[in-house]
Amino acid sequence: MGAIFDAIAGWDNLLLAYRRAASGKGGKASAASFEYQLADNLIALQRGLREKTYRPGGYCHFYVHEPKRRKISAAPFGDRVVHHALCNVIEPLFERRFITHSYANRRGKGTHRALDQLQHWAQRYCYVLRCDVVQHFASLDHALLRAKLARVIRDADVLWLVDAILGSGAGVLASEYTQVYFEGDDLFAACRPRGLPISNLTSQFWSNVYLNDFDWFVTRELGCGAYLRYVDDFVLFSDSKRLLRQWRAAVVGRLERERLTIHVPQAQALPVVAGIPWLGFLVYPGHCLLKRRNAVHFTRKFKRNLGAYGSGAISLATLDAGVQGWVNHVRYGDTWGLRERVFAAHAIPNQ
């Protein structure tokens, strides 16, 4: 067994993985059930990993509809512990290979830093090209991803675990994927394993691994010094609209090598003063507005939670946590008046 796999299956790492998987899940039955026999469950996971008998369980599927309809596939809690155990060890091996301005699912990055950097470049450049990948998680090709991981991970035991997790997610988003044929494909291309369950920690991390070669293509080969990506949304800035159009053609061609496409009609070089849709905001060089759908979604959810609190179904702490989470996100933009109106119109009832 290699040193990397030994670290993944080590007791201290599995215990840390459990704590991270359980963080914020105190009220969930799956986390509580696992904790009830914590030592036994961790020992069973450790044995399964070391003896190669570990097999991921089935996913629980459901849909969310805000801001758009998405299929969520939740893995059993024990599998989520394994996902954390794997990422705890291998993520640092890849982190130093990522570009600086990839902001999703990375420590020290996140939405607000991505918004800050976007606005900073909007103040420096005249034009922006914003693109997004079509059916991103549903499109990610397992063979290409596995090859990218294997370039860094040489431990066969770790790759066995990678294959087990990858295989468990094959086809879970098949209903969300529209078949695309690329140059050189035959009819069997439709049978290529693809798709990563959206809610898996490994999926979020592997998305960055998958697009890392593309990130370096934009920054090094195209020479774009103002490039930013958050999951499948990315932007390129320039003072030349013509150059951005040339870059768009290059981007389309390079992503085809990754078996990905973008929404080409929406990918237009536009002046930054027109505002840049980004992570639920409309970002301008000098200010930032919250998108209407974000406010509508929160207001609906807040009204439901107020009703649940009034009937005693949830606690004041639960209600407050939802409010504080939203406020901490939207305070990035010019939302003071909006927040005042929302909370004035929907007062918390006395109990």
Task: Write up what this structure looks like.
- The protein is an alpha+beta fold and 351 residues long.
- It has 14 helices and nine strands.
- It has a four-stranded antiparallel beta sheet with strand order 4-5-3-6, with helices on both faces. It has a three-stranded antiparallel beta sheet with strand order 7-8-9. A two-stranded antiparallel sheet has the order 1-2.
- Helix 1 packs antiparallel against helix 5, helix 8 runs antiparallel to helix 9 (156-169) and helix 12 (292-310) packs antiparallel against helix 13.
- The radius of gyration is 22 Å and the shape is globular.
Order of strands side by side in the largest beta sheet?
A: 4-5-3-6
Low-confidence stretches: none
Q: What is the count of β-strands?
A: 9
Task: Note the main sheet.
Answer: 4 strands, antiparallel
Q: What is the terminal-to-terminal distance?
A: 59 Å
Helix/strand class: alpha+beta
The overall pLDDT, averaged over residues, is 91
Radius of gyration: 22 Å
Share of residues in helices: 40-55%
Strand residue content: 5-15%
Which word captures the global form? globular
Number of helices: 14
- Give the topology string: H per helix, E per strand: HHHHEEHHEHHHHEEHEEEEHHH
